[in-house]
């Protein structure tokens, strides 16, 4: 059974940092492009960042220079390091095997002003 489990969310003040983790099981992790999405209340789920199996990354314009996606294939884990957080970053953050229906349960990030 394929499973993704996110952790690391929480409440942080604007300007602060958080590091999200996504642990995968039941998949050949190293062959897949992984992604982080986020969804704020009333909004659609938006792509935040992706990382290929080889480590190439892409970011949404809104997070460029502030967020960093990384992975360790041996540990079946993907991270999202978030810095200089803004209130508009408040959302539920989801891990995804890109272009599949494999999602984690999400982790809440709340940034206070």
What topology emerges from the helices and strands here?
Layout: E1 3-7, E2 10-13, E3 18-25, E4 34-39, E5 46-51, E6 57-59, E7 67-72, E8 77-82, E9 91-97, E10 107-112
Parallel strand pairs: 2-10
Antiparallel strand pairs: 1-3, 3-8, 4-5, 4-9, 5-6, 7-8, 9-10
Please characterize this protein's 3D structure.
This protein has no helices and ten strands. A hairpin with a 4-residue loop joins strand 7 (67-72) and strand 8 (77-82). The protein has 113 residues and is an all-beta fold. Helix content is 0%, strand content 50%. The strands form two sheets. A six-stranded mixed β-sheet has the order 2-10-9-4-5-6, with no helix packed on it.
The structural class is: mainly beta
Give the count of helical stretches: 0
N-to-C CA distance:
40 Å
Low-confidence spans: none
Shape: globular
Overall residue-averaged pLDDT value: 94
Approximately what portion of the residues adopt beta-strand conformation?
over 45%
Strand order of the largest sheet: 2-10-9-4-5-6
How large, in whole angstroms, is the Cα Rg?
Answer: 13 Å
> What portion of residues is helical?
under 10%
- Can you write the helix and strand succession as a string? EEEEEEEEEE
List keywords for this structure.
single chain; 113 residues; mainly beta; six-stranded mixed β-sheet; four-stranded antiparallel β-sheet
Short recap of the structure:
This protein has 113 residues and is an all-beta fold.
């Amino acid at each position: 059974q394929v499973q993704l489990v996110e952790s690391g969310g929480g409440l942080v003040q604007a300007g602060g940092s958080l590091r999200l983790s996504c642990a995968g099981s039941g998949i050949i992790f190293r062959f897949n492009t992984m992604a982080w999405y986020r969804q704020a209340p009333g909004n659609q789920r938006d792509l935040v960042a992706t990382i290929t199996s080889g480590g190439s990354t892409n970011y949404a314009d809104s997070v460029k220079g502030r967020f960093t996606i990384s992975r360790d294939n041996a540990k079946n884990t993907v991270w999202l390091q978030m810095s200089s957080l803004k209130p508009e970053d408040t959302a539920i953050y989801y891990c995804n095997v890109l272009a599949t229906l494999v999602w984690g349960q999400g982790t809440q990030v709340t940034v206070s002003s």
